[in-house]
């Protein structure tokens, strides 16, 4: 940056006092200060934006490396599973004496039948919950089945007013 020492600042201040005048010098100095502050904030914003973009680039690079590593792990696991399943099928075919280990007909010849699919109830039992308590039971025990406003509830449970009293 610009190297401004005390002697250079004093010289600039003296020249400004002579050129601008003592009446307008404080206003000009305030304006220059505001402009310098804005310039510093602008430079700081630009630096922050550059740092953010650099960090974003680094994060993208790390994400790519992580995805590559995950893809490699997935491929190695699928390869191992495939190898294990082929070994199992080979061992099964050797044990059963059949070359068609995954053939359902060959399995049926050895007395094995696949289990029949069973019905699985969906876990939505809101009908069951809703109709579990009979309506007559709710009415007898005062269970509210309809929403009521606060004013309606007060009016419902307020004791009845007596006949108008005569005032003397």
UniProtKB/TrEMBL annotation:
UniProt-recorded name of the protein: Sec-independent protein translocase protein TatB
The keyword Calcium belongs to this UniProt entry's keyword annotation: no
Keywords: Cell inner membrane, Cell membrane, Membrane, Protein transport, Translocation, Transmembrane, Transmembrane helix, Transport
Superkingdom classification of source: Bacteria
Subcellular location: Cell membrane; Membrane
Assembly: The Tat system comprises two distinct complexes: a TatABC complex, containing multiple copies of TatA, TatB and TatC subunits, and a separate TatA complex, containing only TatA subunits. Substrates initially bind to the TatABC complex, which probably triggers association of the separate TatA complex to form the active translocon.
BP-aspect Gene Ontology terms: protein transport by the Tat complex
Keyword check for Transport: yes
High-level lineage: Bacteria, Pseudomonadati, Pseudomonadota, Betaproteobacteria, Burkholderiales
InterPro entries noted in UniProt: TatA/B/E (IPR003369), TatB (IPR018448)
Basic residues bias (residue ranges): 120-130, 155-168
Assigned protein family: Belongs to the TatB family.
Organism: Caldimonas brevitalea
The gene coding this protein: tatB
A GO CC annotation given for this chain: TAT protein transport complex
Known function: Part of the twin-arginine translocation (Tat) system that transports large folded proteins containing a characteristic twin-arginine motif in their signal peptide across membranes. Together with TatC, TatB is part of a receptor directly interacting with Tat signal peptides. TatB may form an oligomeric binding site that transiently accommodates folded Tat precursor proteins before their translocation.
GO molecular-function terms, A-Z: protein transmembrane transporter activity
């Amino acid at each position: 940056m610009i190297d401004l020492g005390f002697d250079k600042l004093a010289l600039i201040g003296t020249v400004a006092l002579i050129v601008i005048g003592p009446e307008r010098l404080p206003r000009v100095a305030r304006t220059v200060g505001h402009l310098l502050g804005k310039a510093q904030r602008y430079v700081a914003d630009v630096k922050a934006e550059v740092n953010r973009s650099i960090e974003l680039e680094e994060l993208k690079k790390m994400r790519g490396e992580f995805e590559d590593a995950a893809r490699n792990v997935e491929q190695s696991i699928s390869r191992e599973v495939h190898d294990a399943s082929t070994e199992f099928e080979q061992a099964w075919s050797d044990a059963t004496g059949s070359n068609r280990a995954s053939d359902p007909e060959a399995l049926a010849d050895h007395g094995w039948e696949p289990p029949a699919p069973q019905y699985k109830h969906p876990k939505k039992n809101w009908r069951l919950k809703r109709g579990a308590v009979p309506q007559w039971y709710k009415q007898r025990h005062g269970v509210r089945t309809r929403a009521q406003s606060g004013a309606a509830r007060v009016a419902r449970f307020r004791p009845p007013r007596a006949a108008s009293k005569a005032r003397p």
